[in-house]
Amino acid sequence: VLERIMAVLFCIHNLKRNATVTIYNITGAIIHSQNITPSFPTIDLKGTAKGVYFVEVRTDDSIEHWKLIIE
After folding, report:
1. C-alpha to C-alpha distance for 44 and 7, rounded to whole angstroms
2. Ranges of the chain whose pLDDT falls below 50
3. pTM (global) more than 0.70
């Protein structure tokens, strides 16, 4: 579950294991990649321009995709 905390900060709830989060812009370019853990599942995107982005959360046994809108 993706929860917007602020326009540039979001948290992934119910994360059960370590994951790699990759953020892509609308053209498919990687703008951010970060390893996260269940104890600290927060991504900071300060300085990221307003727009639509795609989030990929990859663990050892799953891949999830979401849309992220920064307003």
Report:
1. 10
2. 5-7
3. yes
